[in-house]
């Protein structure tokens, strides 16, 4: 299980032994209720089971040391709390009917938390995007200054991705919120499809249309892959913060609380530890994808090679992602932004970020693209080498002056040109005020 450092209480409770065995008991009782509705179990026996069936985790674990089988240990422990009606516990079902249906039940609980986590992150990013919609900054490609953008557009891009994450999540969540009560090889030999439908209705799960002894594991693989995609999104966003917090950039900074320490050795340090933390945890989740894919291929109608792995990856992935989403939401909420530094950094390359605008204006005068490019590029190389002012070189160049006026260059060096479609982009993303 995930270490406590990366557990949040509500998600940890879902994957506790107590809640797991309670889910198993809920499935067992739902099966007996179905048998009762189908006329097999008498009302009196069902009432006693509903009133008295219970367990202690310690008793189950002690029994498992003898049985070497966790479900048998569970059913025998529960049976000790009952009288003759105990004969109906686990009647007509196999272990995986209980375990897999309980997994669907537990994942449904986990998904409610993750769904809210995603909703809160989306709302937080949306608010920040609107706040910084017009805050100009340099856009970077390959880590190199490219052309002006806004910090709001950076955040709007995140928001759009989170919306896709939410759509993918709902599809994958529906896949694993499933039950199967179809018996040893999925043929309903000792129980009926009607009973399965009743059990799933009681637990608010869907009935898997066909199963073997287990639910198809492509459902769980898709689910883990989807959670990994969400983790990868958070990692991408965190990487941007880590870059923007570098000393040479320092356009944003994770909130640094009074009394917080950045280094045991260097008192001046303020490190993007939260963003680095979620980056590392995303790697753990992405590693679980391989295991989930390997779990798809089982022998014939079932083996248990997937079981040991799922005891780890299902709780761990949901718990880690819950932690990541919560922590990163707080990072975004409290992010310190330095708009003046963003605007100042536009000047670092001495005006080179406007080279494309200059080239396009030359093309509009009738020059070929190749000719315009070859006129501008040598001047940009001179700026890189000599750290001189790009506009001054343009104003001194005879070929440029032959084609472009002062007003042309004024327009080419106005960053507002690059931002004229920001409102439209925000509308397309769904962030219009």
Ordered list of secondary-structure elements with their pairings:
Blueprint: H1 9-14, H2 17-37, H3 43-52, H4 57-67, H5 70-79, H6 95-131, E1 136-141, E2 144-150, H7 151-176, E3 178-179, H8 193-203, E4 206-207, H9 218-244, E5 252-253, H10 273-294, H11 305-333, E6 336-337, H12 339-345, H13 355-364, H14 369-386, H15 390-396, H16 398-403, H17 406-412, H18 422-429
Parallel strand pairs: 3-4
Antiparallel strand pairs: 1-2, 5-6
Helix pairs in contact: 2-3, 2-6, 2-8, 4-5, 6-7, 6-11, 7-9, 7-18, 9-10, 9-11, 10-11, 13-14
Features:
433 residues; Fumarase C, Chain A, domain 2; Ribonucleotide Reductase Protein R1, domain 1; 2 domains; two-stranded parallel ribbon; 6 strands; elongated
| Total individual domains | 2
Shape: elongated
The ordered H/E elements are: HHHHHHEEHEHEHEHHEHHHHHHH
Helix content: 55-70%
What structural class is derived from the secondary structure elements? mainly alpha
Number of strands: 6
CATH architecture of the largest domain: Up-down Bundle
Strand proportion: under 5%
Strand order of the largest sheet: 1-2
CATH superfamily of the largest domain, please? Fumarase/aspartase (Central domain)
The CATH topology of the largest domain is given as: Fumarase C, Chain A, domain 2
Biggest sheet details: 2 strands, antiparallel
Mean pLDDT: 96
Terminal CA distance reads 43 Å
């Amino acid at each position: 299980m995930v270490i406590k450092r990366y557990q949040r209480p509500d998600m940890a409770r879902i994957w506790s032994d107590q809640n797991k065995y309670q889910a198993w008991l809920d499935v067992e009782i739902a099966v007996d209720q179905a048998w009762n509705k189908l006329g097999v179990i008498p009302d009196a026996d069902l009432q006693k089971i509903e009133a008295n069936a219970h367990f202690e985790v310690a008793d189950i674990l002690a029994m498992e040391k003898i049985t070497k089988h966790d479900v048998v240990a569970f059913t025998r422990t529960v049976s000790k709390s009952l009288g003759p009606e105990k004969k109906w516990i686990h009647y007509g079902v196999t272990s995986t009917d209980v375990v897999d249906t309980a997994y669907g039940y537990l994942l449904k609980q986990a998904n409610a938390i993750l769904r809210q986590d995603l909703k809160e992150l989306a709302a937080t990013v949306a608010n920040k995007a609107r706040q910084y919609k017009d805050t100009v900054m340099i856009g970077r490609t390959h880590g190199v200054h490219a052309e002006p953008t806004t910090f709001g557009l950076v955040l709007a891009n995140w928001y759009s991705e989170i919306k896709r994450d939410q759509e993918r999540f709902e599809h994958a969540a529906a896949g694993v919120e499933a039950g199967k009560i179809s018996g040893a090889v999925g043929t309903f030999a000792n129980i009926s499809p009607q009973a399965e439908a009743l059990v799933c209705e009681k637990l608010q799960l869907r009935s898997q249309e066909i199963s073997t002894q287990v639910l198809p594991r492509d459902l769980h693989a898709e689910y883990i892959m989807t959670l990994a995609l969400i983790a990868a999104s958070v990692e991408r966003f965190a990487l941007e913060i880590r870059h923007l917090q570098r000393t040479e950039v320092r356009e944003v900074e994770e909130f640094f609380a009074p009394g917080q320490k950045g280094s045991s050795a260097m008192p001046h340090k303020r490190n993007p530890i939260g963003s680095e933390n979620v980056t590392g945890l995303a790697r753990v989740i992405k590693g679980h994808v391989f295991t989930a894919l390997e779990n798809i291929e089982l022998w014939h109608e079932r083996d248990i090679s997937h079981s040991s792995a799922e005891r780890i990856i299902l709780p761990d992935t949901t718990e880690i992602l819950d932690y990541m989403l919560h922590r990163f939401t707080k990072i975004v909420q409290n992010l310190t932004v330095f708009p003046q530094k963003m605007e100042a950094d536009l000047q670092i390359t001495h005006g080179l970020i406007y080279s494309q605008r200059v080239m396009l204006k030359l093309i509009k005068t009738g020059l070929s693209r190749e000719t315009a490019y070859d006129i501008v590029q040598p001047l940009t190389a001179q700026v890189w080498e000599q750290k001189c002012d790009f506009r001054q070189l343009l104003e001194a160049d005879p070929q440029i002056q032959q084609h472009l006026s002062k007003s042309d260059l004024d327009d080419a060096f106005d960053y507002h040109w690059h931002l004229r479609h920001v409102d439209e982009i925000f509308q397309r993303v769904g962030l219009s005020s």
